[in-house]
Amino acid sequence: MYIVGLTGGIGSGKTAASDYLASLGIDVVDADVVARDVVSVGQPALAAIADHFGRSILTADGSLNRAALRDIVFHSPSERKALEAITHPAIRQGIQQQLAASLSPYTLLVSPLLFESGQYQFAHRNMVVDASEDLQRQRASVRDSVSSEQIARIIAAQLPRAERLKRADDVVVNHGNLADLYQQLDALHHKYLQLSQQQ
């Protein structure tokens, strides 16, 4: 099984890239989707989060109040570490299960915290979708309707852009239009198909 990790900063174009590769028949394991699944109602991780942070981070129906929890962990590095200690092992297990179930020639593991979380260790190669921080901020504010302060905090919580680029095996520069992005991805797709056959 050949695995390609895909990451990038907020607003860099990770979803556009993974959606395109999925349209070419590649299975995508999305760490964010796994992360949401492991804290859904009835999951052990949600109960552990409520035990640690208190019932105030639950909504009336017992699901996770993401905004309340996000507000806590973005203001407190120690609380963020506590949350990660609860969720990361469950996320890791969920990712492993989905990767093992993949049937495409290679599998894409999409994770905004690929390097920070250690999830890059699942992958044979790692691709970074890159955009300037100005462009990231512009895209994220349009897409997510979040404040510039929150975007700045998200960028600060992620690996610095230069470090992310240094750790990448492949870099896709997403400063232009979708056609330009897809052209770069086509070349990498063919490369990954070849590499997966050599595995």
**SSE string, helices as H and strands as E:** EHEHHHHEEHHHEH
Approximately how much helix is present in the residues? 55-70%
* Rounded radius of gyration (Å): 17 Å
| CATH architecture annotation of the largest domain | 3-Layer(aba) Sandwich
Tally the helices.
9
Which band does the percent of strand residues land in?
5-15%
Q: Describe it for me?
A:
There is one protein chain. With 199 residues, the protein is an alpha/beta fold. The chain has 2 domains: 1-26 and 106-199, Rossmann fold (3-Layer(aba) Sandwich); 35-103, no CATH class. The chain is 57% helix and 13% strand. It has 9 helices and 5 strands, in the order βαβααααββαααβα. It has helices spanning 14-23, 31-38, 44-53, 66-75, 77-101, 133-144, 148-157, 161-167, 178-198; strands at 2-7, 27-30, 106-110, 125-130, 170-173. It has a 5-stranded parallel β-sheet, sandwiched between helices. The chain is globular, with a radius of gyration of 17 Å. The N and C termini lie close together (7 Å). The model has no long low-confidence stretch (mean pLDDT 92).
